[in-house]
Amino acid sequence: MRLLPWTTPDDRSCFLITDGAGGPVSDLADSIEEMQLDIGEELLRHARAMHADPKVPDREFRYLSRRLAEALGDALRVARN
Helix or strand or coil: residue 52? Predict the structure, then answer.
């Protein structure tokens, strides 16, 4: 079983039962996981740039922190299963 990178409307995990061959749902999951990783990488680049700028307001750091937590949560959810 493959854990999919989305949940049900009531926040339960979604799984794909497959024989290992690719298919449309598997391809969609691959695309979403790739987008999630790309977003995480972009957020990380942004965070590094913000740390280098002493004039960045605290509210921007808090916003970035929330987005980084979401991206890390997405990555860990899929990586652990």
Answer: coil
